[in-house]
Every structure is written in structure tokens, then in C-alpha cells.
Amino acid sequence: MPGENLSRDEARERAALLSVDSYDVSLDVRSAVGEGQAEPRTFRSVTTIRFRCNEPGASSFADLVAPGVTAVTLNGKDLDPGEVFDGVRIALEDLAAENELVVDAQCAYSRTGEGLHRFVDPEDGEVYLYTQYEPADSRRVFANFEQPDLKAPFRFEVRAPEEWTVWSNGAGELADGVWRFAETKPISTYITCVVAGPYHYVTDHYTRTLPDGTTLEIPLGAMCRKGLAPYFDADDVFLVTRQGLDFFHDHFDYPYPFGKYDQAFVPEYNLGAMENPGLVTFREEYIFRGKVTQASYEARANVILHEMAHMWFGDLVTMVWWDDLWLKESFADFMGTFANVGATRFTNAWTTFANRRKAWAYRADQLPSTHPITADIRDLQDAKLNFDGITYAKGASVLKQLVAYVGQDAFLEGARRYFKRNAYGNTRLGDLLSVLEETSGRDMGAWSRKWLQTAGVNSLTPQVLLAADGRIEELAVVQEAAESHPELRPHRVAVGLYRRTAEGALERYARAEADVDGPRTVIADLAGAEAPELVLVNDDDLTYCKIRFDDASLAALRDHLGDLTDPLARALCWSALWNLTRDALLPARDFVGLVLRFASRESDIGVLQMLHAWAESALVHYVAPESREAAGRRLAEGALRELREAEPGSEHQLAWARFFASTAADEADLRLLGDLLSGTAVIDGLDVDQELRWAFLEPLAAHGVADEAALAAELMRDDTASGKRHQVRCLAARPSAAVKAQAWAQVVESQALSNALVEATIAGFAQSSQRDLLAPYARKYFEVIARIWEDRSIQIGMDVVRGLYPAFQDRPETLEATDAWLAAHADAPAALRRLVLEARDDLARTLRGQECDARAVTG
């Protein structure tokens, strides 16, 4: 892995020296089918790159990660592959002013989701291919200059089995056995794409009349594996796609620039999706094989719109280097929700954003690896790890604050100017700030220094002073920051005052917007208002902060959280209470109690599902160990009660069913799950479809009720790729030392499993109910991770280092072992150390939370 790294300094030097005119890439993937081929199974890749050099006679290099190179020709001269190719780079000496490089290579198919991934469907034996490159894996498929600022037009051609269809970024046609694709606009290497195989493909179209009177026609397509075709609701995918295209055309004033718009749902995908222009790829789990809640459809729509926003933010205009990754990811994350609310049926998407996406950001921003939104990305390993909650969700939150700060019209006008000035080019932070200064008249430099160039999250707490008549004499907002990141920021906030009505509803009766800056800000507009029961700082979620409560407000929430009528206000309060729990300021069992008391009154299904996840996390991590069993029993009893009382057939019933399965632990609960599977027990309206069957089987396997034979029988019912992943997870979940040893060996000592099955095995292995069984692997973890990082691809390395960390060995000795490894491996790759430091921080937070919970009992 380390030899494949590329530093920012190397990229800068190469960009200063070279400019690329065009790529012609020819791939022959007919080797993807057929038996008896040696490993690694390879395909032929022939690349012609035409490029210029600013200093004739200088040297540089091209990137290629491949098992072998057959021929290299530079400006008509044959070079010895053994001399110029080291497995990662092709040395280029004595460059001319204008150059042509031809590389004929044998590249390897991937089983890790990086490069050209080859998947064999266990259901029918069909082979499916797709590419995934970000940040730097196109060099596993063709020779190139692998950095975002060396853009060029691409022409692809692909030879494939005759029964297959092939897609790429441009429109394609088949002639004489070769698929040839239209030349792209200038784009970066990491967003080129090829998808090939016997995919099920559905078409539609989009038409729009542009301001100049011309008509924009965009062919639409969507595809998935044949085995998923019966579940593929392409009509809804196309509906959201058309709504998104309308929305972005209305707001961006720049027509979609990449011709067609295909969307491929592909197997064993590492990401949620990828914004390849003209051919967006998604994980196929967004095709739902069973009943799901509207939160799942909303999430899919959000991803569709996120990737569509990238067509402008990221593809049309691209960052120079990964330091400015936020220029595409933060904007796409913001625009995904902005468009979801403005264009689709998911008009409450900001509630989901406040509750789910920002939780991801808050966690990331309190880790020791936190970084400014504009990060310091030294190399590709840094870049890979910075696709995180700060770059995405914090960046999007800060953009939401920016919209409140400069106004929506100024923000969108800035975006329009940004596209027009930088189309098909590369930009840095200053390029965007300059247009926003033009359109808003604000000093964007000061704003940027506070929000984009410093790390950490502020907390905002209300202080209320009441006059003798019971009205507010003064209401102030106190801003605090962690010692490690002491920056206090300017916040445009709304402060809401809430009290109960005669009918018992907790509703807002006063609101004021203000600029909070510095350690204490008086909200003058609320002086004289009647005394509130609840003060909600950051009402309407305008800024990015941790909300805190004064004592009276916290007491009101303990008694009346379920009476809050506004869904967004409820979501913000739940998020704040969860942050208090994670910060060891609220005992975990208090949070669990609030969920048990008020979650049943939560109307927003996405918030409810988030509450289930948080309650389970509180139980597993933050409840004092001596109280964990009793708290778990309370959660399971509450979940079963709500499952039985939920409206038959409703999505709330489904959510409670899944939560009950995740909390079931005693004999009666497990017996009920088994009876629901066999049909000997029935809950009115609950359809135990195949996906729910697997959800019920995992706890049965983890508690030793479902054995290998039962899981094999279930796989016979669901002999599909999805079924195989579920079975592998359940097999690894069984409470047996031999099972754990086998799962460990499959992940750590072997490379036979694909990325998806590595993920499934790790998920099954790491069961919170099996702490004693997993204890021996704490020592083994620290013995193997350096080797894993050295030997595996970065994706698999990340999965193993994160997934196998002994988080359930929640005692000080594990912290000490982590510290000992860090001290002994001071020279380990920075990305590896970052992952270990993050896991250590989570464990330290766990121990603080358990201490808080224990004090609440003894106190």
C-alpha cells in the first residue's frame, strides 16, 4: 500500500510541468468470464496519452498499478517495461514539448471494490463489472496522470463478451464487436467510469427548454443486476432524477453539461455512490428487496440529488488537490438536502439532516483527528480518510450557516458565477470566496478563517434571567469551545421560546434571530417575553453547534419532550440530548429512559430510527457494565410493547420490529423471534419478508439459537448475493471460540474474501454480547494491524483496522494497550495512526460515559 502513495508536493510538481490534451483508453474485458484462469485474473488495457511538457528534456512519471506491462512507447520510441515500470509508476525521461505515451498493460480485476471490480452472482453465475476510482484507483485500470488538476477529454473503447452491454461516461455504440464511446468533456481521471455485464437496463428521458429557447434533451438510464430486477423501482429513481434536474437548472443557470445521465446500482460497492459524469454508480442496497420505511426512500433520494449536484460542484468545476475536497463534497451534501426539500416529496429532509447527518459531523469533529473543513492533505492516504463527517456533514452544515449569513439569493448567484468562470477547470478556496464576496458584500475572508480553516465544534447554552413579574429580564447565549480547539465563531442563530398550551402541547411562542459572537451574546429582542419552559438555541438549525440547555429547559424536556409539536425542534432536542450523553453530561440510562418514554410519540420515521440506533449505542457503550443487563431488558420490553401497539402494517411497526430484534437477548424474546420466523407466532400487520427474516436470524445466531444448519437452510430460501452476505454475517456472529477463530483467520490471514464479505464477516464477528469470547483478540489486533496496512488495499485496511478494534473490551487496559502500540509505532503511516487514535478516543469516551452512568446510581 505505501508504495502506491502520491504526495501533494509530487502532484504540484507534475502539474507545473505537464498539461494533458487527451486520453484514448482501450480495454478488453472478455477475460472476465470463463474458468481456469490463473490469479490474479487480468484484462488488457492499452492507453494513449497526448500531453505537453513545459520544460522539454525534463523527467516525470505516469501512474499505473498493474501486475505487468507488455509495452511502453514514448514519442515513437519503445521503452523497456522492466526498466521504466516499478509496479506503480512509469518513468518518463527526456520529455519533448509535445508527447505521446502508449502503454499496453495487463491490469488485475478487483475483489476489493477499487479499480475494475469483478463480481460473480451466486444466484445465476453471471459476471458483472464496474469501476470505482476515487481518490486514485483509475491507475488500476489504465495508465494516467492520477491527480484531479490534470484534466483531459477521454475516449474509451471496450471489448466485452458478446452478450454483454457496456456503458461509460459518454454515449456508446457497438460496432464490429467493440463498444466505442463519445469523447468526454475535460474531466479528472477519478470520475471516469466503465460498467459492463448483463445488467437489467431501463430508460427514460428528460426535456427542458433553456432560456435561449433551445431544447435540452438528456437520455436517462438506470440499471441493476438481473437478480434485483423484480425489486427495481426505476420509476421512482427517474422521478427524483427529473425533479433534481429541474431544481438544479432553476437554481444554477448552467445546463447539465455531460450529455446522457445513467445511474448504475452495482454489487459489493464500498461507497454510497460516486458522481461519475454521465454514469453515476450507487451501492445496490438502494434497491430494496423488502419493506423499508420512508426514511430509506428519502435517503436514496438524497444520494441521487447529492451525486447530481456533483455534476456542477466537482465534475464541471473540480478542486486542484484534495485539500479542497469540501468544494465538492460539502456542497453536494448541502445541495442534496436543499434539493430534496425544494423539489421532491421529502419536504422534511432538513429534520433528517439535523438529526442524522450532523450527528456524524459532531462525532468526527471531536476526534483527535479532527481537521478544518479545508484540510491539510499531504498524500493520497490522507485524502482517502478525509471522506469523513467533517468534509461532508460539517461542511454542509457550515454552508447552511453561510446561506443564513449572506442570504440564499447571494449564495446561489455566487454559485452561478463560480460555474461560468471555472467551467472544466480546477479551483481553490479563494476562487469561491471571491464570487461570494461579490454577490453578498460580506467579508468572506474573515468568515472563512473562522469556519473553514479552524477545527472543533462550539457549544451554545442559554442563560435566562427573569424579572420580578416573571418575564425575561435578559436572555443571553454563552458560547464555549474545547481547550484543544478554542476558536469561538460567529453564529447566525434563531432562539426559540417554548411553553405548553392549555391542551398540553409544547409550542414555540417567541423567536428571535441574532448574530452570536464571542463568549456571551445578549438576545435583546427577547427581553420582556413571558417566561419560557424551554429555550431552544439554534432553533430551525441555522448554524453548526452543540446545543446545550439551562436547568429549567432540561427539566422540561425530561417531562415533556414528547409534547413538542414541531418535528424539527424535537429532532434538535433529541440530538442535543444524545450529545450530552456522549459527552458524559447525561447518564446513559437517562437517555435510554427518555427514548422508552417518548420515542413512541415520534412522528418522523427517520428520527425514530435514529433514536433506536442511539439507544442501542447508549446501552452497548455508555451504560455502566453492572447495569447493562437490566437496561437492556428494559429496552427489549419497551421495543416489544411498542411493536405490539404500533399500527398494523405501518412503517413505525417495521422500525420497532427491527429494534426489538436488535435488543432481544433473553429466552422469551429469542423464542418469539423464532416463532415469527416459523409462522407459529403472528403480529397483526407485520410482514416477515426475506430481509426481516435475516434481521431476526442474526440475534438468534449470536445467542446460539440458530446454528449453521439453520443458516444454510435460510440461504437456500434466499440463494442470492444479498442472502450470501447475510448468511456470512450470521455465521460469524455465532457464540463459539472456533467460529471466532475461523472468522478472524478469514479476514486477517487470508485474502480470499471479497470486500463485501470482509465487511459482513467483521460485522458478525464483533458482537457486543460476546465480550468474553472476543477478549483474546485484543492482543492479536495490535500484533497484526501494521502488517494488514502494509499488505492490503487501503479500503480493506480501513475496514479491518476500524472493524476489529477491541471496542467491546471497554476497560483501561485496552486504552493502555492502544497507547503502547502508538508509542511503539511512531513511524507508522499517518493514516493508520489516525484510525487507531480515533478508535482510542471512542473507547476513552465510552469509559467516561460509563463513569457518568455509574455515578448517577451511587449518587
Describe this structure in words.
The longest helix has 29 residues, at 830-858. The strands form 7 sheets. The protein has an 8-stranded mixed sheet with strand order 5-4-7-2-1-10-13-12. The protein has a 5-stranded mixed sheet with strand order 15-16-17-19-18, covered by helices on one side. The mean pLDDT is 96. It has 859 residues and is of the alpha+beta class. It starts with 7 loop residues before the first helix and ends with a helix. The protein has 28 helices and 28 strands.
The stretches of 5 or more residues where confidence is low (pLDDT under 50) are none
The general outline is: globular
Largest sheet: 8 strands, mixed
The radius of gyration over CA amounts to: 28 Å
Please give the alpha-carbon distance between the first and last residues.
51 Å
Gist?
By secondary structure, the protein is of the alpha+beta class. 44% of the residues lie in helices and 20% in strands.
Considering the chains and any ligands shown, give keywords for the structure.
859 residues, five-stranded mixed β-sheet, 28 strands, 44% helix
Question: What does the secondary structure layout of this molecule look like, with pairings?
Answer:
Blueprint: H1 8-17, E1 18-28, E2 42-53, E3 60-63, E4 68-74, E5 77-79, H2 81-84, E6 89-92, E7 98-108, E8 115-120, E9 127-132, E10 154-159, E11 165-168, E12 172-175, E13 178-181, E14 194-197, E15 200-209, E16 215-224, H3 234-252, E17 261-266, E18 273-274, E19 279-283, H4 294-310, E20 318-319, H5 326-343, H6 349-365, H7 380-385, H8 390-406, H9 408-422, E21 426-427, H10 429-440, H11 444-451, E22 459-466, E23 472-480, E24 491-500, E25 506-516, E26 520-522, E27 534-537, E28 546-547, H12 551-560, H13 567-582, H14 588-598, H15 605-622, H16 625-645, H17 651-663, H18 667-678, H19 690-702, H20 708-717, H21 721-733, H22 737-749, H23 755-765, H24 771-774, H25 777-791, H26 794-803, H27 812-824, H28 830-858
Parallel strand pairs: 1-10, 16-17, 17-19, 20-21, 22-28
Antiparallel strand pairs: 1-2, 2-7, 3-6, 4-5, 4-7, 8-9, 9-14, 10-13, 11-14, 12-13, 15-16, 18-19, 22-23, 23-26, 24-25, 24-27
Helix pairs in contact: 3-4, 3-5, 4-5, 5-8, 6-8, 6-13, 8-9, 9-10, 13-15, 14-15, 15-16, 15-17, 16-17, 17-19, 18-19, 19-21, 20-21, 21-23, 22-23, 23-26, 25-26, 27-28
